[in-house]
Design a protein that fits this description.
The chain is mostly helical and about 120 residues long. The chain has one domain. The protein has 5 helices and no strands. The chain has helices at about 10-25, 30-40, 45-65, 75-95, 110-115. The radius of gyration is 15 Å and the shape is elongated.
Length: about 120
Protein backbone atom coordinates (compact mmCIF):
# COMPACT_ATOMS: atom_id res chain seq x y z
CA UNK A 1 0.00 0.00 0.00
CA UNK A 2 1.55 3.36 -1.00
CA UNK A 3 2.32 5.89 1.69
CA UNK A 4 -0.20 8.74 1.78
CA UNK A 5 1.29 12.21 1.63
CA UNK A 6 -1.43 13.93 3.67
CA UNK A 7 -0.80 12.10 6.97
CA UNK A 8 2.33 13.96 7.98
CA UNK A 9 2.92 14.83 11.59
CA UNK A 10 3.61 18.52 11.70
CA UNK A 11 5.28 20.22 14.61
CA UNK A 12 3.13 22.35 16.87
CA UNK A 13 4.93 25.42 15.49
CA UNK A 14 3.98 24.61 11.88
CA UNK A 15 0.37 23.98 12.87
CA UNK A 16 0.08 27.15 14.95
CA UNK A 17 1.66 29.33 12.25
CA UNK A 18 -0.69 27.95 9.60
CA UNK A 19 -3.87 27.55 11.63
CA UNK A 20 -5.27 31.04 11.01
CA UNK A 21 -4.70 30.78 7.26
CA UNK A 22 -6.35 27.34 7.23
CA UNK A 23 -9.40 28.67 9.07
CA UNK A 24 -9.67 31.70 6.77
CA UNK A 25 -9.77 29.34 3.78
CA UNK A 26 -13.07 27.88 5.03
CA UNK A 27 -14.81 31.28 5.15
CA UNK A 28 -16.42 31.76 1.71
CA UNK A 29 -14.67 31.75 -1.64
CA UNK A 30 -13.12 35.11 -0.81
CA UNK A 31 -11.54 33.53 2.27
CA UNK A 32 -10.11 30.79 0.06
CA UNK A 33 -8.53 33.38 -2.24
CA UNK A 34 -7.15 35.36 0.71
CA UNK A 35 -5.74 32.19 2.30
CA UNK A 36 -4.16 31.16 -1.00
CA UNK A 37 -2.45 34.55 -1.30
CA UNK A 38 -1.37 34.51 2.37
CA UNK A 39 0.11 31.03 1.99
CA UNK A 40 1.79 31.80 -1.34
CA UNK A 41 4.86 33.33 0.34
CA UNK A 42 5.18 31.13 3.44
CA UNK A 43 4.10 27.78 1.93
CA UNK A 44 2.97 26.39 5.28
CA UNK A 45 2.16 22.70 4.69
CA UNK A 46 -0.71 22.69 7.21
CA UNK A 47 -2.36 25.66 5.49
CA UNK A 48 -1.72 24.13 2.06
CA UNK A 49 -3.49 20.94 3.11
CA UNK A 50 -6.62 22.80 4.17
CA UNK A 51 -6.52 25.10 1.14
CA UNK A 52 -6.55 22.01 -1.09
CA UNK A 53 -9.50 20.61 0.83
CA UNK A 54 -11.51 23.86 0.50
CA UNK A 55 -10.61 24.18 -3.18
CA UNK A 56 -12.00 20.68 -3.65
CA UNK A 57 -15.19 21.68 -1.87
CA UNK A 58 -15.55 24.73 -4.11
CA UNK A 59 -15.13 22.67 -7.28
CA UNK A 60 -17.53 20.03 -5.96
CA UNK A 61 -20.07 22.75 -5.12
CA UNK A 62 -19.79 24.15 -8.62
CA UNK A 63 -20.31 20.68 -10.07
CA UNK A 64 -23.35 20.12 -7.83
CA UNK A 65 -24.76 23.47 -8.96
CA UNK A 66 -24.41 22.50 -12.60
CA UNK A 67 -26.11 19.15 -11.99
CA UNK A 68 -28.90 20.99 -10.14
CA UNK A 69 -29.96 22.59 -13.42
CA UNK A 70 -31.33 19.23 -14.59
CA UNK A 71 -35.03 18.98 -13.65
CA UNK A 72 -36.15 16.54 -10.94
CA UNK A 73 -33.21 14.10 -10.79
CA UNK A 74 -30.69 16.92 -10.86
CA UNK A 75 -32.60 18.69 -8.12
CA UNK A 76 -32.53 15.59 -5.92
CA UNK A 77 -28.82 15.06 -6.54
CA UNK A 78 -28.20 18.74 -5.78
CA UNK A 79 -30.09 18.56 -2.48
CA UNK A 80 -28.29 15.44 -1.28
CA UNK A 81 -24.95 16.73 -2.60
CA UNK A 82 -25.41 20.07 -0.86
CA UNK A 83 -26.08 18.36 2.47
CA UNK A 84 -22.97 16.19 2.05
CA UNK A 85 -20.98 19.26 1.06
CA UNK A 86 -22.11 21.07 4.21
CA UNK A 87 -21.09 18.09 6.36
CA UNK A 88 -17.68 17.97 4.69
CA UNK A 89 -17.22 21.74 5.14
CA UNK A 90 -18.07 21.54 8.85
CA UNK A 91 -15.73 18.57 9.28
CA UNK A 92 -12.87 20.39 7.56
CA UNK A 93 -13.40 23.58 9.54
CA UNK A 94 -13.43 21.67 12.83
CA UNK A 95 -10.19 19.92 11.84
CA UNK A 96 -8.55 23.24 10.96
CA UNK A 97 -9.61 24.81 14.27
CA UNK A 98 -8.32 21.77 16.19
CA UNK A 99 -5.02 21.71 14.28
CA UNK A 100 -5.67 18.34 12.63
CA UNK A 101 -4.68 17.34 9.14
CA UNK A 102 -7.46 14.89 8.42
CA UNK A 103 -8.98 14.61 4.94
CA UNK A 104 -12.67 15.37 4.61
CA UNK A 105 -15.06 12.45 4.47
CA UNK A 106 -15.85 10.96 1.06
CA UNK A 107 -13.64 13.04 -1.30
CA UNK A 108 -10.85 14.47 0.90
CA UNK A 109 -8.15 12.07 -0.31
CA UNK A 110 -9.15 12.68 -3.92
CA UNK A 111 -8.85 16.44 -3.41
CA UNK A 112 -5.24 15.99 -2.34
CA UNK A 113 -4.49 14.02 -5.53
CA UNK A 114 -6.39 16.36 -7.83
CA UNK A 115 -4.97 19.61 -6.48
CA UNK A 116 -1.42 18.62 -5.45
CA UNK A 117 0.09 20.92 -8.08
CA UNK A 118 -1.87 23.97 -6.91
Amino acid sequence: MPKETHNKDFSAEVIESGKSTAIIAYITIIGLIVAFIMNNDKKNPFSSFHIHQVLGLAVTGLFIGIIGIIPVIGWLVAIVGSVLLLIMWISGLINAVNGKEKPMPVLGKQYMKWFKSV
